[in-house]
Amino acid sequence: MTITNCPMCEWEIPELSEPIRTCLECGADLSRWTAKKKAPPPIPVKAESSDGWHFARQAATFSLAAPFVAMAVNGCSREGVRGNRAGMMIVGGIGILFIVSGFILGVIALVRTKKCGREGIFGRAIAGVCINGFFIALMLIGFHGFTKYYIELENDRQRQRQIQRPW
């Protein structure tokens, strides 16, 4: 805000390179009405973000905790959903989701250790990936075994039907 006249005596203030602090006519203090030059704000300096470190640490912790949470969910809800197919599928799906997401986040945490450092991340991530990988392998083996079992069971049922109806 720049004034052109003195507020006390209405004297016209000439424009100079530096603002006048007192009126040359009446001696009034003009510093209150003259614009002060403000220093420009400092340029923000980008510091190394530690957000990646926090994410990698949380991903490693989740990777380690996920299989235990999945087992707790399955164990605690076993009696509540027994006999209810939809409930069993939902609880089983939640367990599988925990285990697979724990495996994926463990791998991401392992990859992030190159940028963020190994301290507090590497051990948890390795343990989480190993445990989750073990459970994923068990699920795949179990799925294959159950598929073979049901195929053989269906073949036995067809044989029984053919024996009962020889025509």
Task: Give a written overview of the molecule.
It is a single chain. With 167 residues, the chain is mainly alpha-helical. It folds into 2 domains: 37 residues, no CATH class; 114 residues. The chain is 63% helix and 0% strand. Helix 1 packs parallel to helix 4 and helix 3 runs antiparallel to helix 4. The protein is rod-shaped, with a radius of gyration of 37 Å.
How are the SSEs ordered, and which strands pair?
Blueprint: H1 51-76, H2 78-81, H3 85-116, H4 122-164
Helix pairs in contact: 1-3, 1-4, 3-4
Radius of gyration: 37 Å
Largest sheet report: none
Question: Helix- and strand-based class?
Answer: mainly alpha
Shape: rod-shaped
Give the count of structural domains. 2
Fraction of residues in β-strands: under 5%
Number of DSSP strand runs: 0
Nearest-integer average pLDDT: 82
Count of helical stretches: 4
Helix content: 55-70%
